[in-house]
Amino acid sequence: MKSPRFETQKRFLVSGIFNTVTGSLAIFAFQILLGNPYLANVLGYLFGGVVGYLTHTGYTFKARFSKRNFMGYTLIWLTGVGFNLLLLKILIGYMHPFLAQCVAVGFFISYSYYLQAKIVYR
Question: How far apart are CA 87 and CA 106, in angstroms?
Answer without folding.
Answer: 11
